[in-house]
Amino acid sequence: MLLGAAGIMHAVRPEPFDSIVPRALPGSPRAYTYASGLAEVATAALIAVPRTRRLGGLAAATLFVAVFPANVQMAIDWRRKPPRMRAIALGRLPLQGVLIAQALRVARRG
């Protein structure tokens, strides 16, 4: 549910997501925002259907690895923000590991 909601937010309010797209990537940050949002919605749909849940778990793990650089970019960009914002940005880094582990667990259980 959260994965699908996050994906929808990429389309509804793309600006915060645009801001964490690593600047080293070629092209428009908005394109990456929309693509990752679409991938999140599609992955959520795969996980929701029992027949495709294993594939959805693998897709989610791959997606969480792929978006990790955006979390690193956020941590770098927010290093001079107020302490609460820095904590949020830094907390997202280990959270990705938890999300990857959960996605792999879903894939194993199918």
TrEMBL record:
Top-rank lineage group of the source organism: Bacteria
Protein name, per record: DoxX family protein
Organism: Brachybacterium epidermidis
